[in-house]
């Protein structure tokens, strides 16, 4: 049996109560390095709350969340980001009046301020990194375009790029393909499969076709607890999952 310290993320006995209602109830699951892990489940199952707990936006009532063996439940949101956990919310938070280049540039992690020749070297480093990320998110030809003129899907990719430029080891995405075209959805799957070479991805998603394309492992949540877990193949043939979720 694997030791919890072998995982990139180990969630154990996680519980949160809102006025006595347990939105997440003694939940345990694990994310490996280089894994795409998808959480599915009916509305109100507690999926978004799980991401809120991991990123420190909501405080747990009990249990533990270990990321690279560091306890996250005791840390503040910005410390969790710094530890290497990036989170994308459902609505893109990009700057509409800035170009794609500028949106990526301002997301580049800032170190100490530097001067002269060093600053020059750093500018080149930022430009190279922006170019690298832009290619990854299919926006190389749009670098000088203002973000407001991008399609819905391109805006979602830009926000993923703004997280990627910070090089998180765990990237969490809440319904990344909602509202995307079939082609954009395919490219998003391609993007996620590419970026896990250096990180893990935890995704909440309702689009089952997309889940089939990306998931290494699926956790099905229902009323704050795990209903089923395993490969998509296994989960979608689980009568319990068909009954409460997929059959609808
Ligand atoms: N801050 C809060 N205060 C009180 N109740 C909350 C709070 N956040 C979430 N809840 C409740 O917890 C339950 C789980 O909500 P959550 O948004 O995590 O579900 P979800 O699985 O993400 O649903 P959806 O698929 O609709 O996004 C819901 O009943 C919700 O009303």
Automatic annotation (TrEMBL):
One of its GO terms (cellular component) is plasma membrane. Keywords: ATP-binding, Nucleotide-binding, Transport. The keyword Nucleotide-binding applies. Residues 9-248 form the ABC transporter domain. Gene3D superfamilies: P-loop containing nucleotide triphosphate hydrolases. PROSITE patterns: ABC_TRANSPORTER_2. InterPro entries: ABC_AA/LPS_Transport (IPR051120), ABC_transporter-like_ATP-bd (IPR003439), ABC_transptr_urea_ATP-bd_UrtD (IPR017781), BCA_ABC_TP_C (IPR032823), P-loop_NTPase (IPR027417). One of its GO terms (molecular function) is ATP binding. The keyword Kinase does not apply. This is Urea ABC transporter ATP-binding protein UrtD. The lineage of its organism: Bacteria, Pseudomonadati, Pseudomonadota, Alphaproteobacteria, Rhodospirillales.
């Amino acid at each position: 049996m694997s030791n919890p310290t072998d995982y990139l993320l180990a969630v154990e006995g996680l519980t949160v109560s809102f006025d006595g209602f347990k939105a997440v109830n003694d939940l345990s699951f694990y994310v490996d390095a280089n894994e795409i892990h998808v959480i599915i489940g009916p509305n109100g199952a507690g999926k978004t709350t799980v991401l809120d707990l991991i990123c420190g936006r909501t405080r747990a009532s009990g249990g533990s969340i270990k990321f690279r063996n560091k306890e996250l439940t005791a840390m503040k949101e910005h410390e969790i980001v710094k530890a290497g956990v990036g989170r994308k919310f459902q609505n893109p938070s990009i700057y509409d009046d800035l170009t794609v280049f500028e949106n990526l540039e301002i997301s580049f992690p800032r170190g100490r301020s530097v001067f002269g020749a060093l600053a020059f070297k750093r500018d080149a480093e930022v430009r190279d990194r922006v170019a690298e990320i832009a290619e990854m998110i299919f926006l190389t030809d749009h670098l000088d375009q203002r973000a407001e003129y991008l399609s819905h899907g391109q805006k979602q990719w830009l926000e993923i790029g703004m997280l990627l430029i910070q090089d998180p080891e765990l990237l969490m995405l809440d319904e990344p393909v909602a509202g995307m075209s079939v082609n954009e959805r395919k490219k998003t799957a391609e993007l996620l499969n590419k970026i896990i070479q250096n990180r893990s991805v935890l995704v909440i998603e309702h689009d089952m076709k997309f889940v089939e394309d990306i998931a290494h492992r699926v956790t099905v949540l229902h009323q704050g607890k795990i209903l089923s877990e395993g490969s998509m193949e296994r989960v979608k043939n689980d009568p319990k999952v068909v009954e409460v979720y997929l059959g609808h």
